[in-house]
Amino acid sequence: MSGISSWPADRDSMADRQWLGQDTRAVSELVGFSLTFGIVLVSVTLIATLGFGQLTDFRDAQQLDNAEQAMEIVGGSLESIEEGDAVTRSEAMDLSGGSIEVEKGSVANVTVFNSSGGRLHSELLDLNALVYSQGSTRISYENGATYRQESQGGVMTTEPKFVCSDDVAVLSFVTLEERTQAGKISGGEVSITASHSDTRLVYPVNRTGDNATNAANVTVEMTSPREGPWTDHFDNAENWNASGTTIQCGGSLERVYVRQTNISVSLSN
Fold first, then answer.
1. In 3-state terms, the chain is what percent helix, strand and coil (to 5)?
2. Residues contacting residue 39 through CB under 8 Å, at least 6 positions apart
3. Which residues neighbour 13 within 8 Å (Cβ) at sequence distance 6 or greater?
4. Is residue 218 part of a domain?
5. Of 74, 79, 93, 140, which is most buried, counting CB atoms within 10 Å of its CB?
């Protein structure tokens, strides 16, 4: 009798164990699904947050690189005017959230000396600059050179057309004059039109009184937001000496020529 009476109890116990096993598996599957879903959700959130920031940084860096290339193209057009190969040139530039303006205030003090150290000629030349700004980055054209400046420093990306050899110096300065007085232009695409105004010989002043062969050396002192990379460039250039914001070519030159080209610039969008 005892064996017969114990069978239902054993069967109930076995059923309970089976039910508990099924319940445990269901709970495990639910926990596993919740953990997997949580991991996927966190991963998507991190990718969306960090990935978007990286994409934004990449986009901004690409825009600045494009602006730098565009400024170098503009500089090439201005050089063709400076060299007399063109009278008027026009370029387009996508500002991509930045702004552009003709920045006034930069000047160069040019002084020519004879072999005994006497001053033959000294003149202050206005330069001005074409400046693209985005955030803390400034990409500029000034006096035949282009620059890229950021919060940690700046560098000259293309150099001016200055010649300094063992026996001759030829310095060509570019003055930008804003024609439209448009001020700072922001957003979209801007049209930059440049035209030759005039070119004059700064030294020798005349071909009879001040002869180019009377000069032995020439110095240029820059006053500009870009004077740092300017001086750094010439400090490493052959035949040039740099001290503070002043650069010097020669000491025993045979000839010195200095000229200034005035270029009128118009900005519009």
1. 35, 40, 25
2. none
3. none
4. yes
5. 140
Give CA 143 to chain center in angstroms.
Answer: 16
The better pLDDT of the pair 187, 147 is held by 147
What would the two tokens of residue 76 be? 């090439």
In angstroms, the CA 217 to CA 241 distance is 11
Q: Judge whether 39 lies within some domain.
A: no
pLDDT tens by residue, 52-100 = 556 566 566 788 788 899 999 999 999 999 999 999 999 999 998 899 9
Q: How many domains does the chain have?
A: 1
DSSP letter at 99 equals E
- Alpha-carbon distances, residue 199 vs 33, 77, 121, 195, 258 (angstroms): 78, 16, 18, 12, 11
With vertex at residue 60, the alpha carbon angle to CA 54 and CA 62, rounded to the nearest 5 degrees, is 100
Q: Which domain holds residue 68?
A: 61-268
Per residue in 82-91, pLDDT (tens digit) is 999 999 999 9
Say if 171 falls within a structural domain.
yes
Give the containing element (helix H, strand E) for 190.
strand 189-203
Q: Tell me if 242 is assigned to some domain.
A: yes
Smallest CA-to-CA distance from 267 within 147, 101, 146 is with 101
pLDDT per residue as tens digits for the range 168-211: 999 999 999 998 877 899 988 999 999 999 999 999 986 555 67
DSSP string of 26-53?
A: HHHHHHHHHHHHHHHHHHHHHIIIIIHH
Q: Which residues contact 70 (CB under 8 A, 6 or more apart)?
A: 91, 93, 94, 132
Instruction: Please tell me the pTM assigned to this model.
Output: 0.78
123 DSSP 8-state letter: E
